[in-house]
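Case study 2.
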Amino acid sequence: MDITQAINHLYPDAEFWDDFEVSDDANGNGPYISVWNVKNSDGTDAPKPSVAELQAAWDVLQATPAPAARLPKILVIDRLETAGKFTAALAALQANALTYERWSASSSVDPLNPEVIALLDAIGADKTVILAPE
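Prediction:
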């Protein structure tokens, strides 16, 4: 079990070093929570999770599929160009200022983003090719 990941699952806003620390004294007992200053959203002290709670959170994490990896935007641009769809994609992006700004601000593309998928569908691009994993 990775205690840090289990804690982050239970308390997504908790920051390692700032709110909690995990130590291992190399005594055969394994890692443990050595510092606990996590707060609830209302500012009250969050209860330190038990080993059973940490294990349950870890089990959930192990059963949850990993999110699709984001793709470098330059890879998506190259694939659009190769498919002859870059000009159409750019025109579709520029038709909506907010969408265009989001595209411009990002260095990667989420292949599961419904807006990305809709744009590719709208320009007739093969999303299985354009959004294929690296």
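The beta strands are 20-23, 32-36, 71-72, 108-109.
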